[in-house]
Amino acid sequence: MAFTHFDQEGNAVMVDVTEKADTVREALASGTIKLNQEAFEAVANGTTKKGDVLSVAATAGIMGAKKTAGLIPMCHILPITNCKVWFELDPKQREVHCFCTVKITGKTGVEMEALTGASVALLTIYDMCKAMDKSMEIGGIRLKRKTGGRSGEIVNP
Question: Do 143 and 152 meet the contact criterion of CB atoms below 8 Å apart?
Fold first, then answer.
């Protein structure tokens, strides 16, 4: 498959989606942050000095998804109809797993919005916990599932 963000001369361009049909499209992205014991317990118990980390991070993730077109040069501005960010805690590994789903009815997918939402949520956790842990590690950010459009459903286990 050819790259769609370059023209015949190799110049970066926004993909023209004018003629594409509107379809319901949804994407789920995930990522993880690993924390030390003190920071993990503070996040899990809601006892950080900066407040409820996960609530703030969820809000930040939604805001990040909505601002994706302002961050990624060739992304279209999309009328997001739904965005959810949630977390699962793994006490044994001291990890917070973040999930972000984004949904629209439109001409192009929302993978970048979901990936951005998860990334911003994890960065917010980092920001709110950096006084307790300078060794946090963010990773595993990836698209888990997408639906809609020509390619239909894609699932990455």
Answer: no
Selecting among 16, 22, 52, 127, the annotated active-site residue is: 127
Matching residue, tokens 């899990």: 44
22 is catalytic: no
CA–CA distance, 147 with 12 (Å, rounded to integer) = 26
Element holding 78 (H helix, E strand): none
Altogether, the residues listed in the chain come to a count of 157
Please determine, for residue 155, whether its predicted confidence score (pLDDT) is greater than 70.
yes
φ and ψ at residue 58, rounded to 5 degrees: -65, -45
Has residue 140 got a pLDDT over 70? yes
DSSP 50: T
pTM for this prediction: 0.92
Q: How far is CA 84 from CA 5, 77, 148, in A?
A: 28, 18, 18
Rounded distance, CA 86 to CA 100, Å?
7
Task: Give first-to-last CA distance, the chain, whole Å.
Answer: 22
pLDDT of 29 over the 80 cut: yes
CA dihedral (136, 112, 102, 152) in degrees, to 10, reads: -130
- Residue 123: CB atoms within 10 A of its CB come to 17
